[in-house]
Amino acid sequence: MQVFRLAPITAALFGTALSCHAQTLVQLDEVSVTATREARATADVPQAISVIGRSALAQKKMYNLKEALEEIPGVMVDSKNGGFDARLIIRGAGLKAPYGIREIMVLRDGVPLTDPDSFTRLDFVDTQDIERIEVAKGPGNLFASGSAGGAIQVISKSVFDDSANSARIGLGTQSTENYHLRYGGMISDTQALALTVSHRNQDNDWRHWNSFSTTQTSIKHGWMLSGDDTLESELSYAEADMQLPGSMDESLFNAYLHDGRQRDTDDPWKHSGRYSKVWFFNTRLEMVRGDFSFKPRFYYNTWHHYHPVTGLINDPSSWVSNIGTDLEGHWRHTDGTLVAGVSIRREKAPDQKKYEYRDVRTLPSGRILATLSDARGDLASTSDSESLLTGLYVQESWRPGERWIVDSGLRYDVIEMENTTDEITQYSWALGRYVAGDGYEHTKKTFRLPAPKLAVTYKLGGGINLFGMIAQAAQVPSSGEVSSNPSLDASVSRNIEFGLKGRHRDWSFDASVYHTTVRDEIVQINTGGVTEYANAGRTDKKGMELSGSVNLGHGVSLGGFYAWSDYTYDAFSEPLRVGFTTVNEDRAGKRLPFIPRHQYGAHMAWTTGAWKLRLAGLSWGEYWMDNANTQKYQGWDWVLNLSASYQQGPHVMSVNVGNLTDKRYAVEAKKDTSGNLSYTAAAPRSVMLTYRYDFN
Known about the structure:
The protein is mainly β. The protein has one domain: TonB-dependent receptor, beta-barrel domain (Maltoporin, Chain A, Beta Barrel), CATH 2.40.170. It is built from 5 helices and 42 strands. The model is unreliable at 1-27 (pLDDT under 50).
């Protein structure tokens, strides 16, 4: 990368910085609970962590979590649809997922959204009901059960916070609509109630099969018990419909670059999507007795979806259920704090069914050329699966002096998976049609995942903190990956990290360097459209991250971020299909695909009176498109996003413009082992105008 590309970043960060999300002139440190389960200012957390607070979220349309996370170094996020779907990668973790979120723990108010087998669904997360988002990167997290990539916690607006009461109407290009109502308050001296209703819709007619809509409702109840005890509960229901567009070959991608429209996809599966219904309940008690506090959480969610994917259509007869509890206790003693607890979660997916596509166009040989609809055809398979997670965690935060915090802890999880499948037919990629299945198969696996951590924070003075950490975490394969490859092992990540954090009224920064070694990394292998999974022998990840902001006075602030990543396979033999046989190719010394060596961005914000304005630019450097490192994609430079708002009393008008200059590029470019290229197009310029009325 040329030096001049880094010049604006270096200027914005020199001697300063904060988390790239600080927007206000007086930059107060955010508080985090995600890494340590203890409320601390981020400067006192001995780990790379970012917090996106209320003021930063208020300047985004928050249609998708991508908007909140895309300016964090080491975090790569995008959405194929622009709705609730998000592909998320933190320091390379999550790379194996063709879509969705894996290897990263996602929580909402301390309640896991991630299933025991590490898959996360976001279809029932109301992005309009978020107070702040915390991102803790890498191993060493007490919340992250069976996940090595870190944890993301979404903190919703409290039922006791009547300042969150508002109504919002947003209209934009691509037939975008965004409606939100939150109203609540105290219904007695000790109880509060809040109702939230949201609806989002987007046609995305710049490419075929790409619409999205969701409607979400929730009721929150809060009860102030005796003393400092509180009980908060929530019941929500969501319906989310999302079409998932396919990728493009090189010819289609060049046509998109010419006129900005995607008219087709290069694979036969032209009607993928996810149409879900979700019930979610959780209740959280906090009891305080002197130096002791007890925080039990209980939760239950159940969901059903119609999910056309590559080759088959998922349409279960029964709803999937996920029930769990987390029993957390704190003891504040003379020299620090002891945190300990137990986690138990069970997911049951009975009578899950997959079907062939009913309406297809074929050759005389039966090879499927294209789907004509997403209607289901003949039954292809049935299955029953269950996952059970049991975990223990403990951490001592010792404070031997005013300047020191020493965190030593351990999380230990046991995850049991069991799956029974009766496969009647399957789709053969070699023949391009449905053939006889493998019949009855039963898989049972148990993973034991220790995750120790030792971390230290030292206050150097002048608002500067030094931290160091060594931690280990294990990554459980998903149940689908285990079913496709029962020999998969859990991968183990060991991370050593050092960093500096600075906080001041007018500036702040976060800087860290890390070295992560991964044994048995689970990697994705694409051959002629077939996605398979295997364990790489060893992977080596080295990186540096820097982010920050500075107040220049007169309402102006500048900031930015930069991440340097050097991820290579130390030992990996990639299985390749040659006809009907498999050969192994040595990939030792090759770089991991899709991960750019350079990721960077900068922002400028201006606040004066009732006006707020923010302009941000984001860039990804070039990266390899395959494990063999045979071809690179050039990445993209300075995609600009603009937000502006004006507030007069309770009335707020805002405009958000994404991809301001309407750049055309691929958010993902891949090359499979057969040499086929595929590209996922970036969304064009979008404009949304929003009116918000604050009731309080």
